[in-house]
Amino acid sequence: MNIKKRSVVRFFSVALLLSAFLAPQNVEAQRKKKNKKSKTETAAPSSKKEKSIKDLTKSSKKIAGLFTMYRDTITGSLQMLISENHLGKDFIHFNQISNGVVDAGRFRGAYGGSKIFKVKKYYNKIEFVSQNTSFYFDPNSAISKSQEANTSEGIMATVKIEAQDEKAGLYLIKADGLFLKETFSQVKPPRFPGASPMAFSLGNLDKTKTKINTIKNYEDNTNLEVEYVYSKPSVLNGGSQALADGRNVSIKVFHSLIAMPDNDYKPRFDDPRVGYFTTQVNDQTATNSVPFKDLVHRWNLVKKDPEAAISEPVKPITWWMENSTPVEWRETIKQGVLEWNKAFEKAGFKNAMVVKMQPDDADWDAGDINYNVLRWTSSPNPPFGGYGPSFVNPKTGEIIGADIMLEYIHFTNRVFYDQLFDLAKADVEFNASEYLQKNTVLCSFGHVMHENTLFGQAVVEAAGGSDLEMARMKKEAMLALIMHEVGHTLGLNHNMKASQLFSPEQLADKAFIEGKCLTGSVMDYAGINLTNDRTKQGQYYDTSVGPYDVWAIQFGYTPFTTEGEKVALLNRSTEPELIFGNDADDMRAPGKAIDPRVMVGDLSNDQIGYSIDRIKLVDSMMNDVKTKFSKTGQSYQELRRAYYLLSRQRATAVNIISRFIGGVYVDRAMIGQKGGTQPFTPVSLPDQKRAMKALTSYAFAPTAFSAPSDLYNDLAMQRRGFGFMRGPEDPKIHQQVLTYQKNVLNHILHYNTLQRITDSELYGNAYNLSRFMTDLNTAIFKADIYGNVNSFRQNLQIAYTNRLIAMLTGKQNSRYSNNAKSMALYNLKQIRTMAAPSGNVSSKAHKDHLRVLIDNALKEIK
Ligand SMILES: [Zn+2]
């Protein structure tokens, strides 16, 4: 329902936009027509000569290119030349944000989509019409004659021809209306239903302030930078410090009109066993159950010498390092790009990737689509640590251009979100991931890695490691980040399952891992490799592409001579180092997915064991964090940062463990494929029990998350201005710990997880619902319910009890299966019995509270 509603709203707003755009013009046209008519009635027809293109452009500067432009030298207004050659042909429109503000979700380097449009002539008008590329019809099938049925083109604009040269086949149109409005793409984000009225939002597009800043014309593409200005007379929320004036906000957009590439590029179709970005296409003439002709996004690499096993490409993928790149990092960044050449060699190409330096006096800008640029920014609110978008020809999937955006924050000790470590606000973390989910193209690897590196540095610092050691870690982090973002620009999406490659023992073997990728793929969000025994510490991060990366590049780029070669390559997907699962499969959000191996922040093929080790490392560091991170003469900010870093690593570790409860391993091998199993295999009973035992000790136990009490006295932020006006500055310890525990409960008591436990009992799950729910009750109550219950556990026990009650009577109770509800009721009754009055006054009060909650809830159950 929601989706339907939203698309109606979208349709409505697009219709409004178009009518707003078209209506005044129509009125204007009618008025002119009227004038003309009345004139012809009174004057002789030959007395007024139609103006020529030359007449109308005499005060303009000509900017020749794919679409030749004339810019008036006095008013700056723009006219555009359309030739007969343009008519009926396909062009590509692509846009990216040249500069914006994160507040509005529009930030420098963010790519908009690319789409196909046609230029058509309709009587005395020129139309710009976007094309539908979602469907394929076999031209040999008769049904292809009806291929336009029930699909829609989009007429983006209709513009009157002002003058024409019939002999040369040229038409002149006014172009301001095309570019000073959101004709080709929507710039201002729509307001989502239910968005807070307090949230920052842009005003209305002000066409008197909006202007075209630059025009760059090439033979194959016409590029304009338009500064859209959004204004409103007053604002409730003026946005962040990044905005000089929340009432007038500029969003600068690069528009590119691009000629269809003229080459013999052959599309490659997607396969579920490898992770490429795709353009989805449905074959409407196919009769099978998977009529997918999804186009893999990849570059057009062609061998110079087609006969050679390994050849240089005719045109390599060339990267330009922006001249703003920190000098000390240039070599490492170059190395990160060129690492991919190892993968391309296995696909038959030598020197597929080339890195050049943008000269300091270059006459082109990093936003120029003719250059793929490794860019640098230091934003007030960095939306990413790295971001590697590319844009494609929607008809073929061929990647035409790409950039990599890197944020300077990666080198700093600042944190991405100030609030990230202040989980006093229970929903901060959720909001951050929401933000990233809405911007699905965004890569948050930089965030994850930055946090990991800050933690790693704390470990090295606490262990008295050298500056050299720190520098090595930072270099490895940069290399891994670059390789990851470059991977995106080659068409690869994430592989969150790749961290299964090595065992904890292998990861703690310095010599074994040296020079290797620590995971199957640099496209994972793996945890940092840290050994509790510091003498065993080897590499922290990937320093080379992994086996999956090589194989994926082989699939995308090998010039296969037969279909059989490709099938044979794909059939290797069952080799353990080639396993794959992307963001859609990953379990970072509670209840979302099913395979615990597809997780972020994890490492090794024994995620439970590795996570327990990480928890032990954190707990041992907590004991002396105070002495290691307090520096005479400085404020307590650094110590506070270290405390929250440690706590978060621990929270991540227990989340990873929780995903094994009710987990189901997924195998996407084709039927009969060598090495393949059935698609769904429940996690074994011993592993689920082991996970439950770990959660009992490290997430729910009375002393879980405890820290030396004198540490709490020191968790102070440095005062800045009136920074504490929003709320009291004292650390919210109980709320923080409960948030970590609730995150675990969010998953293991999620209706999807509980439903899956019952369902998977039918196909091999031996840890059935009643066993799990009984163990959970035990984990949360048994240790202390008959005696004194400390304040952390009181908090947890009440929150858990409320959750069981909510399963029966809460707003979402209809989402829970009857089996789950029965067990919730059973557990509540058990708690009611266990919570008899005992212990000290505080514990008695707590148990009274539990009993009253349960008694009242039982009355409500019908
Ligand atoms: Zn990524």
Automatic annotation (TrEMBL):
* Key word Electron transport present: no
Gene Ontology MF terms: metallopeptidase activity
| All residue ranges annotated as the DUF5117 domain in the record | 113-304
Stretch forming the signal peptide: 1-29
Keywords carried by this UniProt record: Signal
Q: Which domain of life is it from?
A: Bacteria
For region Disordered, the annotated ranges are 29-51
Q: Does the keyword Protein biosynthesis apply?
A: no
Residue ranges annotated for the EcxA zinc-binding domain, each copy included: 470-784
Name used for this protein in its record: DUF5117 domain-containing protein
- Which species is this record about? Winogradskyella sediminis
